[in-house]
Batch of 2 targets.
Target 1
Amino acid sequence: MRISVIGCGYVGLVTGTCLAEAGHQVICTDNDPERIAALKAGVVPIYEPHLDAIFAANLRSQKLSFTSNAAEAVRLGEVIFICVGTPPLENGEADLSAIDNVARLIATEACESKLVVEKSTVPAQTGQQLKRVLGVYRRNGGIEFHVASNPEFLREGTAVEDFLHPDRIVFGVEDETSENQLRKIYAPIMERRFRCPVHLSSCPATKPPALVVTTINSSELIKHASNSFLAMKISYANMIADLCEKVGGDIKEVTHAMGLDPRIGPRFLDAGLGFGGFCLPKDIQAFIRLAECSGADFSMLKEAERVNKRRIDLFLEKVRNALWVIKEKRVGILGLAFKANTDDIRFAPSLEVLRRLIAEGAHLRAYDQEAMDKTSALFPQVQFFREPYELVRDADALLILTEWPEFRDLDWARIHGMMCRPLVIDGRNMLEPRAMMQHGFEYFSFGQPEKSQPAQFVPAQLPALSTASAGA
Ligand code: UDX
């Protein structure tokens, strides 16, 4: 199938490259000529595991190509995937101006009928507007535009795997022709007919992806509803963590037991500094705005957003309580990216923590295996170190802000001896309080037992209580 991808940001690059890997002829375009020049030269401007390999292979085989001539890209594709950004406006609504621009471009440049697919995250009813714009700006009366929605559920850090091994693929369509075209495009992924860059020997024998075919409106809602539910689940865990601190529980044990119930599930219950990144914060805002404009009460999501925003206040309260005075303190920062396995710092909780500690006069030293370049551009006053042990020397405190697995494997006994004061405030509950206590650290985190509490009796596996006595 000849496919055009408009927008070579994160979603467009992963989508275009993976569809080429699945055997399609893909041409990508973007309104940033420098980005296109870099891509043509084989430079992938984002850090995403496994992407480089399949990008290079498909560029070489010419299955994947790039052009800054958007009109050419429009004309070449039978199916056009719109992957432009929909960043938040001041009021939280999604900025759809790039979608509108692309729609007018397609309408004026297309010489044959096209299937136009929304891949960008958009609020419900965008497809209807897209169809209208394509109609009113259409230059060639003899052609037709079909519109469809095909939301992505890619997570940064695992996007290639998420695209090639999705849990589900969603088509929002208005007719059978569009549905069949999309089925043809995704057939190699549904039937695992691709060389998997993630599982070099053989892919795990998991169930094939579920295919959901629905209306465009429902498909658009599925994306926002899914991301908002994930955000709400994280805020719920954080709310429980706060209560654990008040009544003396252990959030990890609570969420572990909750997650054993398949109706709840173990994932996205990690308490800490809250959710960041370019998706969850803006999608929950856009969903709330859509509900407000439509007269639906989404106060539950507003609360989830408020709980999330307060994580930073609560974290800085822990820092202030431990340090008393923040001014002039040497504070080490482990982790800057909004989550592990990415260099992305957009809407990362770490940025607000840095901003506020600098404002209070702390001297910051930071380490992150991927996100330092992007952060140093924003915070020239922070000292960046190529490896974590360099920044702990004589530090008054160490703050963990991103859940990079490498922090668990650090030599904490060694760090204990290097710090001026062995104080760790773990914003991602990465470490084991008991182990940190045994190393002699003052250790604070979210919803876990803290050093200040007397050693608690840790019950051995209690025999199952009979319901009667439990009720008594
Ligand atoms: C998210 C969705 O997961 C993905 O399906 C969608 O397509 C795009 O948005 P992503 O933004 O890459 O993906 O990040 P995700 O892995 O969802 O993490 C989001 C944030 O939540 C991160 O800041 C992470 O640290 C935080 N998080 C995640 C928690 O605080 N606790 C958790 O249990 C899980």
Target 2
Amino acid sequence: MKLGHVLQKAERGEPLSSHELQFLLELSKPDELNQVFELACRLRDRYFQNKVFLYGFIYFSTWCRNDCTFCYYRKSNMHPNRYRKSEVEVLEAAKRVADSGVHLIDLTLGEDPFYYKRHGFGSLVKLVNKVKMNTGLPVMVSPGVVPEQVLSDLYIAGADWFACYQETHNRELFSRLRLNQSYDARFSSKKNAMRSGLLVEDGILTGVGETLSDLAFSLESMFRLGAHQVRVMSFVPQKGTPMDHWTTPPRVRELLVIALLRILMPDRLIPASLDVDGVEGLQARINAGANVITSLIPPQLGLAGVAQSTKDINEGYRTVQGIIPVLNQMGMRAASLEEYSCWILNEKEKLQRPRSREVSVS
Ligand code: SAM
Ligand code: MD0
Ligand code: SF4
């Protein structure tokens, strides 16, 4: 297979086969990798020019009923100092990160029994509504798997996005990562979210035992799902978990997946997460084709990251102020809130068109 041939095909917008995706995932020579990254950036710039979107991250409860083998906050890990922030604390954090200039607030939690059982999802829906009202910003919710009715309630409360990462689209590997969880329930929740009017983010991990053919299949699955935002993160080993002794994968794998996500889905949002390598890892991810910076965390409020629970947070590096110089140095710029709002409005209209057509026929 010839690299130039495959890249020309991709540049013309022709779909790549699984075989071609795997061929690209195998590349390792610097000049070949650069050709892939350069194409990804050209495609990104075609749709987004030099605009980058910024997401504030609030992990407001680190309690979880699940036992994912890769996660620091799995229920049987005794190491984390867990917390559940009160409504006042969440609103304070949301206000701070909103004032710092982010375009969206990502409200994330473990599958916390407080919301999943005792207080019901009503208090989560109310919290989402208050954050939306207080900040006026687009809101993403990352709660794990929730019933369809709750997705619809979240939409009505003002949520714009539902994020739920499959981690892998290989069912057997999924069952080793997300112990005792249903692959189908997790995947369907994203389709249900779209039916409720929410934009959806799917994502995968690298370095968790996947093969190149698994990665190619994940790329195709996320494309078929029609996710609006698609991500990849390198696995970071966590103390006290069954995967504690694993090594973190070479970053070239994550970077290649970012580039292939861009090549396959040139007009989608693709994050460069600060939660893997902090600000130090930002430039490489943007240069691979990412156009969103996620995991910007207000410092000094006792909020954690997921894969890097403390890295760069209290130092204030994972902030808008901390990343703007890096962006500018690369000739990129933070988008305006209006530019971001336009993008999501446009995507929401596309989501709802089939439904309104159904209504007008009946
Ligand atoms: N509890 C919700 C869920 O699982 O969907 C939302 C929060 S969860 C902690 C967010 C994501 O963080 C996971 O889906 C996974 O992709 C990522 N993550 C968790 N642990 C990680 C690790 N050790 N390394 C890299 N990414 C990790
Ligand atoms: C991030 N730590 O963006 C966050 C998290 C959840 N929607 C996002 C994984 O990297
Ligand atoms: Fe819980 Fe999410 Fe961590 Fe799994 S990844 S243990 S669901 S917080």
